[in-house]
Design brief:
Number of helices: 20
Largest sheet: 2 strands, parallel
Order of helices and strands: HHHHHHHHHHEHHHHHHHHHEH
Helix content: over 70%
Protein name: RNA polymerase sigma factor
Mean pLDDT: 85
Distance between the termini: 49 Å
Pfam families: DUF6596 (PF20239), Sigma70_r2 (PF04542), Sigma70_r4_2 (PF08281)
Shape: globular
Low-confidence stretches: 95-112
Structural class: mainly alpha
InterPro entries: DUF6596 (IPR046531), RNA_pol_sigma-70_dom (IPR014284), RNA_pol_sigma70_r2 (IPR007627), RNA_pol_sigma70_r4_t2 (IPR013249), RNA_pol_sigma_r2 (IPR013325), RNA_pol_sigma_r3/r4-like (IPR013324), WH-like_DNA-bd_sf (IPR036388)
Strand order of the largest sheet: 1-2
Number of strands: 2
Strand content: under 5%
């Protein structure tokens, strides 16, 4: 294997293994900032050694073992080696006999999951909401600050500062690495839900890179969501989030073509949707509704996804109902992005001119200035109205804003198609 191939493999392994690596280290050193540093040290060691020695049979275990040795060195420097060395030694010996648990086993262990502990630690009330989400995306999602900034529609330096300050705050406050219990658990669930869904979204539609999706992130988010649903079976929004993720994940196999090119929702082969996930998603939505009360933001989004899931063909989609659900969602969580999505549903239900009026009202929204989906949606409406030159300009602008190579290709193809249609 040539060096460039090895480096690509290392990057892929890192993207998959880093959340578990950081979570496992945080359990040992009780400091998420130090855990990330130790994980990064292991990554540097892999970059130095693997091009020569080859990729290990179990790269995740290699990284963890390397990081744990560095953890011991760090504890020695802090003059705590006598107490911790024996503890880590017992952990390493015990973990040699463990196999990776499957998802169902993880669900049964409602407080024993390192990743879940890491989510709750990253979402501790000592941090601001923005810092909780950014830090967890960084530590669990393995995302760069640039990718997180795009998810938040804020400048990259702002995200970087949030992450540095968050890790420092957690260390100074000596936040325990644990899953909270009792009333504190209920108080912190809403921020955890937001984190889990943002991780899922990054997997569902990657903000950058060469891949349209990162299914591994979706799986991590769904795994955490299922564990949380086991912890809080009577919370409707937990089931609402699970419903939303299950239904959206059901489309993963139909969202890309043979060469990895994106396929838009209305063009997807619905026979390729995962109907087991749809059934599970609809059941979770029913559970959220049975628990009573007004539907929250996640349950409403799940209800929107269910409109797609229940339609056997794109033409059978109940767009009027979807537009109404988006209007409800806008009341619960007012947002320019929600309004942009409502515009799409309104366009499909009542015509592109109606949707364009909503989008045009968003054109001066500062938070959407660099959001590529705004010109993309506007271009779609203009194309349907026959305003092809304007549509081409919008698709080209959207292509210039996206950081995802697959999405850029799709948008440029749509721009070119407007010229061929003239």
């Amino acid at each position: 294997m040539i060096a460039s191939d090895t480096h690509r493999t290392i990057n892929a392994v890192w993207r998959i293994e880093s959340p578990r690596l950081i979570a496992g280290l945080a359990r040992i050193v009780r400091d998420v900032g130090l855990a990330e540093e130790l994980a990064q040290d292991a990554l540097v060691a892999a970059l130095e050694q693997w091009p020569t020695s080859g990729i290990p049979d179990n790269p995740g275990a290699w990284l963890m073992g390397t990081a744990k040795h560095r953890a011991i060195d760090s504890l020695r420097r802090n003059k705590r080696i006598e107490r911790k060395h024996e503890e880590i030694g017992h952990q390493i010996e015990a973990e040699r006999e463990l196999t990776v648990p499957d998802i169902e086993a993880a669900i049964d262990d409602d407080v024993g999951d390192d990743l879940l502990r890491l989510v709750f630690t990253s979402c501790h009330p000592v941090l601001s909401t923005e810092a909780r989400v950014a830090l967890t995306l960084r530590l669990l999602g393995g995302l760069t600050t640039e990718e997180i900034a795009r998810a938040f529609l804020v400048p990259e330096p702002t995200v970087a500062q949030r992450i540095v300050r968050a890790k420092r705050t957690l260390a100074e406050a000596k936040v325990p690495f644990e899953v909270p219990r009792g009333p504190e658990l209920a108080e912190r669930v809403s921020s955890v839900l937001a984190v889990i869904y943002l991780i899922f979204n990054e997997g569902y539609s990657a903000t950058a890179g060469d891949d349209w999706m990162r299914p591994g992130l979706c799986e991590d988010a769904m795994r955490l969501g299922r564990i949380l649903a086991g912890l809080m079976p009577d919370q409707p929004e937990v089931h609402g989030l699970m419903s939303l993720m299950e239904i959206q994940a059901s489309r993963l196999g139909a969202r890309v073509g043979p060469s990895g090119e994106p396929i838009r929702l209305l063009d997807q082969n619905r026979a390729r949707w995962n109907h087991m996930l749809i059934r599970r998603g609809l059941a979770a939505l029913a559970r959220a509704e049975e628990l009573g009360g007004a539907l929250g933001a996640y349950a409403l989004q799940a209800a929107i996804a269910a409109v797609h899931a229940r339609a056997k063909t794109a033409d059978e989609t109940d767009w009027a109902r979807m537009a109404g659900l988006y209007a409800q969602l806008a009341q619960v969580t007012p947002s320019p992005v929600v309004e942009l999505n409502r515009a799409v549903a309104v366009s499909m239900a009542f015509g592109p001119a109606e949707g364009l009026a909503i989008v045009d009202a968003l054109m001066q929204e500062a938070s959407l200035e660099r959001y590529h989906l705004l010109p993309s949606v506007r271009g779609d409406f203009l194309e349907k109205l026959g305003r092809l030159d304007e549509a081409r300009a919008e698709f080209e602008r959207a292509a210039s804003l996206t950081r995802n190579a697959r999405e850029r290709d799709l948008l440029l193809e749509r721009a070119a198609a407007t010229t061929r249609s003239k």
